[in-house]
Recover the amino acids of this structure.
């Protein structure tokens, strides 16, 4: 497989034809020169995500790459290896259990009126202009406001939190991490100081926000260490808005590029939940994740060496014709849409139900308020990286 094609403008504009060629070459392949394997087929990716013989791809590993990362950016290295993304049982089970109560279906559904209020306010603000950048004016502030309120940090700090979060998302991607380590390290130091101030504020004036619950777990004893407390709050902030921002941006772009599907959503707003699932499958905000086997693993007739990184291409698996009929067609009424955009297994996205709610309310609100919306550009550009598929901007005419 020629991995150099992953670094071309053509790939960033539309990775799916290259995914198709990769999958046809082999659904589970060794990647020469990268010290890793790559899985592109739905069955292969699904199986590995749920296989207890594999650990998180962010697990500590005594290799030259991790040693260099730790030396250049020790705070971000510890952040990624102490939070739920990098944890494995039993630590992962303990950490997830402490946070999951904030994301139960009942708790998330109770947020619907607040999400609807934020959506209405944001659309009111852009309506007089007749045009907006969906990413900056809508898709970013919506989930960032929601997660800030859930955590219990001041919403007026939104722009500061966003600026700190962006370098973190860029080092999620192993292929581009090196270029952003110093920037992310500086942001991490500022975020740590910020959250320590917030912890003190919450201790003095306790409430029922997510930070209050985590502080209680920390102050009770050994259920949550100080480092885990910080790492968990940073993860919730970053993951709590980044994925949803890109879900809304990528999803709306897909719908506007398929006017018949946009018209269908306008005519049948009850299809909004199904439209969200199809947008997740069609152009997932997270394209790559990874796992490492605890020891040598026999899988699909191959032997994957212990601790070898296996890159799981969620974007390719979600377009696998062996699982999804006519996979390159956007169909907001698609049935049996068990995509992998939120992963599977113990690392299934904790905030999936909240992301789904926010995207559903967002798409329904946009289609109802601006039914004649159209793209105001012929081409779009994406932020650097492979793991996260994120638009730089999405200008639209509101009609």
């Amino acid at each position: 497989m020629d991995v150099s094609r992953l670094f071309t403008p053509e790939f960033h504009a539309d990775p799916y034809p290259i995914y198709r060629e990769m999958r046809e070459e082999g659904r589970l392949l060794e990647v020469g020169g990268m010290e890793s394997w790559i899985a592109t087929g739905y069955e292969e990716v699904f199986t590995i995500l749920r296989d207890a013989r594999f650990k998180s791809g962010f697990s500590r590993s005594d290799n030259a790459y991790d040693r260099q990362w730790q030396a250049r950016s020790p705070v971000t290295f510890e952040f990624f290896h102490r939070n739920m993304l990098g944890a494995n049982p039993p630590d992962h089970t303990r950490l997830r259990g402490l946070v999951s109560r904030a994301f139960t279906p009942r708790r998330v559904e109770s947020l619907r009126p607040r999400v609807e209020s934020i959506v209405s306010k944001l659309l009111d603000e852009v309506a007089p202009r007749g045009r907006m950048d969906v990413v900056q004016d809508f898709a970013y502030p919506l989930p960032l406001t929601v997660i800030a309120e859930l955590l219990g940090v001041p919403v007026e700090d939104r722009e500061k939190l966003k600026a700190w979060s962006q370098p973190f998302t860029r080092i999620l991607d192993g292929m581009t991490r090196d270029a952003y380590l110093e920037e992310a390290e500086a942001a991490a130091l500022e975020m740590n100081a910020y959250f320590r101030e917030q912890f003190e504020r919450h201790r003095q004036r306790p409430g029922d926000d997510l930070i209050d619950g985590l502080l209680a777990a920390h102050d009770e004893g050994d259920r949550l260490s100080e480092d885990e407390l910080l790492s968990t709050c940073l993860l919730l902030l970053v993951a709590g808005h980044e994925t949803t921002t890109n879900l809304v941006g990528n999803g709306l772009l897909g719908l506007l590029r398929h006017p018949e599907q946009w018209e269908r959503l306008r005519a049948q707003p009850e299809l909004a939940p199904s439209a969200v699932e199809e947008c997740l499958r069609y152009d997932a905000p997270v394209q790559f994740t990874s796992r490492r086997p605890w020891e040598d693993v026999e899988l699909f007739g191959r032997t994957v060496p212990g601790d070898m990184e296996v890159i799981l291409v969620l974007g390719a698996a979600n377009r696998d014709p062996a699982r999804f009929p006519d996979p390159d067609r956007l169909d907001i009424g698609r049935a049996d849409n068990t995509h992998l955009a939120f992963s599977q297994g113990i690392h299934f996205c904790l905030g999936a139900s909240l992301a789904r709610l926010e995207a559903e309310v967002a798409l329904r609100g946009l289609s109802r308020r601006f039914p004649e919306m159209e793209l105001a550009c012929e081409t779009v550009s994406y932020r650097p990286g492979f793991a996260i598929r994120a638009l730089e901007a999405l200008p639209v005419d509101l009609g």
Summary: Residues 83 and 91 are 9 Å apart (CA to CA). The two ends are 45 Å apart (CA to CA).
